[in-house]
Write a structure and sequence with these properties.
Elements lengths: L2 H16 L6 H32 L1 H4 L4 H7 L4 H14 L3 H8 L5 H18 L6 H15 L4 H14 L22 E6 L5 E6 L2 H14 L1
Antiparallel strand pairs: 1-2
Length: 219
């Protein structure tokens, strides 16, 4: 199916949803399940298309970045950032891509798996496709299918990464202890629906001390 035919299908679906009659408990539950799965399909399609956009260089030919292309077409900035991150992830994580494509995982769960695997791959210095990372991906997907929340999936991934982080090599002058390794630093923040700022950070000890000092001074 090409883009034009797909748009027509979406228009037909909109007509169906606007004329939908829900007047029994069974219909409420059935519609909720269908809507959740439809949202999961949409999240996967957006992420996969964002990945295609980056690989094909579509946004660059329009004189903008992929994130800008998404936001100009109606994406909230946080949704655009997640779509791009997940799009890159499902391109190399076959198991996650399969469950995402079949709408068996929500977009939030898929994003948590992708981020968790990426964090562990960096911290454990293990490439995507290695036994270690494949094992983690299987664990995270299984946890998501079993009802774990995205937050729980993230915590599981971080715990796994800690347990499997290789120790510093005292005989290698270039080896850096985890607590001092700035290449592992992560800092993310997003505005909430209520206007408040929500964030997460995972920093080396020196950067962490600087952040605390700055926050203390600013507050």
């Amino acid at each position: 199916m090409h883009g034009g035919a797909f748009i027509t299908t979406v228009d037909d679906l909109i007509d169906i949803t606007t004329s939908l009659v829900i007047d029994t408990d069974d219909e409420v539950i059935t519609t909720i399940r269908a809507a959740i799965r439809l949202r999961s399909v949409s999240d996967h399609l957006l992420a996969a298309t964002a990945g295609h956009c980056e690989r094909l260089g579509t946004a660059q030919r329009w004189g903008m970045r992929t994130a800008e292309l998404l936001t100009r077409n109606g994406c909230a900035p946080t949704v655009a950032a997640r779509a791009m991150r997940v799009g890159r992830g499902i391109d190399v994580l076959d198991m996650t891509a399969r469950y995402s494509r079949d709408a068996l995982l929500s977009g939030e769960h898929v994003a948590a798996v992708v981020s968790g695997v990426g964090h562990a791959a960096t911290r454990c210095r293990a490439p995507i496709g290695s036994d270690l990372i494949t094992d983690l991906e299987s664990r995270l997907v299984a946890a998501a299918l079993s009802g774990a929340t995205p937050s729980e999936i993230s915590n599981t991934a971080r715990g796994y990464a800690i347990d499997h982080t290789p120790p510093a090599d005292d005989t290698d002058p270039a080896s850096v202890p985890v607590a001092e390794d700035s290449s592992l630093n992560q800092f993310t923040y997003t505005p909430g629906e209520d206007g408040r700022l929500h964030g997460h950070f995972d920093l080396d000890i020196l950067t962490g001390e600087r952040l605390i000092a700055g926050l203390d001074a600013g507050s």
